[in-house]
Amino acid sequence: MFCSLVCAAQSQTEAEEAQKQMKAAQEKGDWAAVVQHGANVGALLAKAIATPKPDEISDENWKATQERLKAERVQAEYACLDASNKETDPAKRVKLLEQFTTAFEGGDYAKRSLATLAGAYQQTGNTGKAVATAQKALEVDPVNEGLHLLIADNDLSGKRLPSAVDHAHAALKAVENKKKPEGYTDDAWSKYVKTIQGSSHSIAGMALMQQDKPEAAIADLKPAADQLAGNPQALGPVLYNLGFAYAKLKRTAEARVVLAKAVQIPGPVQQLSKDLLVKITPK
Predict the structure, then answer these.
(1) H-helix or E-strand containing 171?
(2) Which domain holds residue 248?
(3) What integer pLDDT is reported at residue 11 of this predicted model?
(4) What domain count does the chain have?
């Protein structure tokens, strides 16, 4: 047991030195060094926490020591989170988040940061890792509308249409049941909710159209057209698909009204909208 006592003391001493280095890096604003030293602190404290209780220490004192070490490890975890969030370069931020979430895997801050890492991967164009991380993050936060929307968009692109619809509808449900977070004005929160709803309805509607389910698609495409009215780039495909759905159901009057709006929006579906409008308009 003498070895346990020495090993625990050595790990704590090394952790204290790493903590000093981490704090010095914080003062310099060297976020990469903060995460590097913070991860080292976490590993050393985890080693000290896992050390068997020496006979020379009472149960009460050992419990108090364990609680102190665990609290210090949480502080190091938060320092890494804070440093990762302060890094402004997208590529560097990805690396810091990867290092931080790996070093403190299972920790509360690390688990909550998986959603942030998924967004960072998406920002840097790494769609594969973004989706894989989002799926993992949903295990921690199953009602995160942003994660569901990220996966839904990727599923639509990859022709995984039933999954795209499921995740798009899950995003809708999540944001509808969410209370306005602190720091948001009523106007800002209203705009955010409208954007999430518009994007979710759009993805679900277009996925349903690709499954040849025009009736179900209309139920999503109609609200999408209203919610995306200020975003022409996103609105064009919605209007085209909505017009196409009406046309397939022989509701040509409604189709012409929608397509007349679609042909006014420059973009990849403008010509398709014109062609369809001509086709369903009596000569």
Answers:
(1) helix 161-176
(2) 144-283
(3) 62
(4) 1
Q: pLDDT (tens digit, 9 = 90+) per residue, 17-55?
A: 888 999 999 999 999 999 999 999 999 889 888 888 888
Burial status of residue 279 (CB atoms within 10 A of its CB: 0-12, 13-18, 19 or more): exposed
Are 31 and 84 in contact, with CB atoms under 8 Å apart? Answer: yes
Cβ burial 22-39 (10 Å sphere, 16+ → b, else e): beebbeeeebebbbbbbb
DSSP E strand stretches across the chain: none
Long-range contacts of 153-161 (CB under 8 A, 24+ apart): 153/199, 153/203, 154/127, 154/130, 155/207, 156/203, 156/206, 156/207, 159/210, 161/207, 161/208, 161/210, 161/211
Give 171's contacts (C-beta < 8 A, 6+ positions apart).
Answer: 145, 146, 148, 149, 152, 196, 199, 200
Residue with the two structure tokens 């003391």: 9
Q: Per-residue pLDDT tens for 217-253?
A: 999 999 999 999 989 999 999 999 999 999 999 999 9
**Rounded Cα distance, 190 and 173, in Å:** 15
Q: Are 42 and 77 in contact (CB under 8 A)?
A: yes
Identify whether 24 is part of a domain. Answer: no
CA–CA separation, 61 vs 64, rounded Å? Answer: 5
The CATH number of the domain where 149 resides is what?
Answer: 1.25.40.10
What is the C-alpha separation between 277 and 283, in angstroms, rounded? 11
Residue 185 within any structural domain of the chain: yes
pLDDT in tens, 164-197: 999 999 999 999 989 988 888 999 999 999 999 9
What pTM, to 2 d.p., does this model score?
Answer: 0.81
pLDDT band at 3 (very low <50, low <70, confident <90, very high): very low
